[in-house]
Amino acid sequence: MTMARTAEEKQAGGAETMEVLLGRSPEIPSKMVHDWEKIVLDFGSSDESTIHPGNDLLVQALQHYFGNTYLVQPVHHMVGFWGSKMKQAAELIRPGEKGRKYIFLLNNTCVVRQMVRRPGASFPNVEPLLTSMIKRYKKCYLDECWAPLKCLSSDEFTAEFLVTCNRQMTWKVAAELRYKLRKEILELIAPPYDGSRVIDIDGLFEG
Questions:
Q1: Which end of the chain is more exposed for a tag (fewer CB within 10 A), N or C?
Q2: Which burial class, exposed, middle or buried, applies to 135 when counting CB atoms under 10 A from its CB (0-12, 13-18, 19+)?
Q3: Which residue has the higher pLDDT, 178 or 66?
Q4: Which of 122, 143, 164 is the last residue of a domain?
Q5: One domain, residues 124 and 162
Q6: pTM higher than 0.70 for the full model?
Q7: Are 103 and 171 in contact (CB under 8 A)?
Q8: Residue 127 and residue 73 share a domain
């Protein structure tokens, strides 16, 4: 019961920061903050594939912002607030599982990027922000889960590689991200110039 209360407090936290950041504007960003407080996410049943309802709140705020030229809140403030709340949620989803929070962040950031790319959508400067976040999360994931394998001896590498693959085999990763991650993992731990490591990760991740 204490853990559930802590999760709710963490999830609701940060609203005041957003209001200060946006100058306590009465416009849609404040509504985004207030609506976020109403979100209830069951962290116990959530995993890396969970699509956070806050994604829709961000897109709604962006739609209102770009539809009203009199609004002055910088877009990066709204995206930054959303990103900080997603990081809070990521820490509460399967805590302690190495690298999993970054897959949650990657999946949700890719979803939002797809939303702002839809035909008819017009969100200048938003996509580069999201792409930058995706690159950062990928680096964090690779550094945490796979980079340590590079320094291992052949036997140690094989053992740790199998452990890591088995742990992540059933992780659900968006299609556009799944293939890119596999490619980057291979390039990191088995670069083309190193013929001593022939590995297969085609079965890594689920859709």
A1: N
A2: exposed
A3: 178
A4: 143
A5: no
A6: yes
A7: yes
A8: yes
The 3-state DSSP class for residue 24 equals coil
Assigned token pair, 4: 């559930």
Query: Tokens 């709340």 sit at which residue?
Result: 85
Q: What's the residue count for the chain?
A: 207
Predicted local distance difference test score (pLDDT) of residue 195: 59
Total tally of structural domains belonging to the chain = 2
**What is the four-CA torsion angle of 124, 175, 197, 151, rounded to 10 degrees?**
50
The one-character DSSP state at 172 is B
* Gap between the Cα atoms of 132 and 126, Å rounded: 10
Pull the structure tokens for residue 196.
């001593």
Nearest CA among 115, 129, 109, 84 for reference residue 174 = 109
Q: Are residues 127 and 177 in the same domain?
A: no
Q: Which residues pair with 172 in a beta bridge?
A: 206
